[in-house]
Design brief:
By secondary structure, the chain is mainly alpha-helical. Helix content is 75%, strand content 1%. The chain contains 20 helices and two strands. Helix 3 packs antiparallel against helix 4 (58-83). It is globular, with a radius of gyration of 22 Å. Residues 234-238 have low confidence and may be disordered.
């Protein structure tokens, strides 16, 4: 069946009343969660996962999660602009110009610029996803278990390469995730591994409670700790004025949006990059090519546009490696990979041949979510901005309740609550040791795929393990993995340097203001 025929069948499935309501609800929820400091897009997806168990159509479940993703990426800019506190990690660069512009009494202009750039970047990458996904799939249609194992190595290595400030610690985290996923009964031999005689661990660790503990609950505990250290103080949200962005200003920031969206789409399609890296590179590039670079950091609209169009452009492009290769493009799509697996969807080259309509339903759903973000953003931003005034001591208990309810809903067994609590303690210890748990989570997700393909490949080639480097495609994948790892390490260093420069600049400006 041709791609056009698949798309024609997918469109009616997206534009049902049910799916449209899911998209609206997901966008609003994403905006709220993205806006509140301490919450995140990953937390929103974690909270929605148990709810999607009741869905008859797996595509509807993924569409809802993608809508939360899209809304959350924009929502992070609201608190970045009004409080100088990014709601998500991908909104850090938005504070550089968003908050200074808000301090000048132009909050509405800053928020409108953020919304315009977010929609532009999101649509740019969603169209790119629609046009390129099937083509990439056809290029990798002849992959065997050897290549799939090499892709698993690429996924873990690249995520580890851009997680945290220490590559060795990130690699350790990924290895721990692989080990944790090995707990329980081996799917190939039926032998119980690493259960230590515990009936609770006999059947392994369920993915959903693990993700809830690693991401959602750990973030809540960290935020409560920070909230207590800060004495429960949080700046009030600023009053939003009525002077928004003009058409002339929209035209003036289009080059910045286009440049950032293009760069971020390329970076987002590289597994492991994500919006956190893309925003800094795009911000720096737009500043470098701007006619007025001296205005950046002082409330420049181009700066806001560069930051917001870049992190939203990553949403669609990060789905390209996920759908075509089965490799997540960033931490959020690693969660989406878990959602795919939980709903019986196997992303990768075979998805467009065996589940083509579902694949395009998900892609078009992502496109529609970005289109609807514009009217919802205009109508809901003022209301959502007020939510950041809610004390976190009120929000945290509600979030914890939903998290443990979601862990219990995974299997309906109380043992999941014990496992969830145990992993939470372990995850918090890792954060104290400055070890990122994103590679750990990805290791748990990819272990099953890697192990099965490794066993299949070794049996098919009579335990000739050199096959992983002698088969041309596998060798190329491994070489690309090494090259990208080295390049990402350099990128991380450059981003860290940019961060230091920005902090030094802000400290110098703050000192000048105090002296004045």
């Amino acid at each position: 069946m041709s791609d056009f025929a698949l798309i024609s069948q997918a469109i009616p499935q997206v534009f049902t009343v049910y799916n449209m309501l899911l998209i609206f609800g997901g966008l609003i929820l994403g905006m709220v969660i993205g806006c509140v400091p301490g919450l995140s897009v990953t937390l929103g997806i974690i909270l929605m996962l148990p709810l999607t168990y009741t869905f008859d159509d797996p595509a509807s479940a993924i569409i809802l999660l993608l809508a939360v993703y899209v809304g959350g990426m924009y929502g992070g800019s609201i608190s970045a602009i009004t409080l100088n506190t990014p709601g998500t990690n991908s909104a850090i660069a938005t504070t550089f110009d968003g908050y200074p512009l808000a301090k000048k009494g132009k909050v509405k202009k800053a928020l409108d610029t953020s919304l315009f750039a977010s929609v532009f970047g999101g649509l740019f990458s969603a169209v790119l996803l629609l046009l390129c996904a099937s083509l990439i799939t056809k290029l990798v249609a002849n992959f065997t278990s050897v290549e799939y194992f090499s892709l698993g190595i690429m996924g873990i290595s690249l995520i580890a390469g851009v997680s945290g400030s220490s590559l060795p610690k990130s690699l350790i985290s990924g290895m721990i995730g692989l080990l944790m996923a090995c707990i329980g009964m081996d799917a190939v031999t039926g032998v119980t591994r690493f259960s230590f005689g515990s009936a609770t661990l006999k059947y392994g660790i369920d993915m959903l409670p693990a993700m809830i503990a690693l991401i959602a609950l750990t973030q809540v505990v960290q935020k409560l700790r920070d909230f207590k250290v800060a004495g429960g103080k949080l700046d009030d949200a600023r009053k939003i004025d009525k002077q928004g962005i003009t058409k002339k200003e929209m035209v003036s920031i289009l080059p910045a949006c286009l440049r950032s969206s293009t760069i971020a789409s390329v970076l987002g399609a590289m597994p492991g990059v994500g919006g956190g890296v893309a925003q800094f590179l795009c911000y720096n590039e737009v500043r470098r090519t701007s006619k007025h670079p001296e205005e950046f950091g002082k409330g420049c609209l181009e700066g806001i546009a560069a930051a917001e169009s870049s992190n939203n452009a990553v949403v669609g492009s990060a789905m390209i490696p996920l759908l075509t290769l089965g490799i997540p493009g960033d931490g959020v799509t690693a969660l989406l990979l878990g959602a795919f697996v939980l709903h019986g969807i196997q992303p990768g080259p075979t998805m467009f041949t065996k589940q083509g309509v579902m694949a395009y339903t998900i892609i078009i759903g992502c496109l529609v979510a970005n289109v609807l973000l514009a009217p919802l953003g205009l109508g809901m931003t003022r209301l959502v901005a007020k939510i950041v005034q809610v004390r976190y001591t009120y929000l945290a208990p509600v979030i914890i309740m939903f998290c443990f309810a979601g862990a219990f809903a995974a299997t309906g067994n109380t043992k999941e609550l014990i496992i969830c609590a145990g992993i939470l303690i372990f995850s918090y210890i890792l954060t104290v040791l400055d070890i990122d748990n994103t590679p750990l989570m990805l290791g748990m997700i990819l272990e099953d795929i890697m192990e099965q393909n490794f066993v299949t490949a070794s049996m098919s080639y009579d335990r000739n393990y050199s096959i992983f480097i002698t088969r041309p495609i596998s060798a190329v994948i491994l070489i690309i993995t090494v090259v990208l790892l080295v390049s990402m390490i350099r990128v991380n260093r450059r981003v860290a340097k940019l961060n230091e420069q920005q902090e030094a600049q802000m400290a110098a400006e703050h000192a000048k203001m105090e002296n004045a």
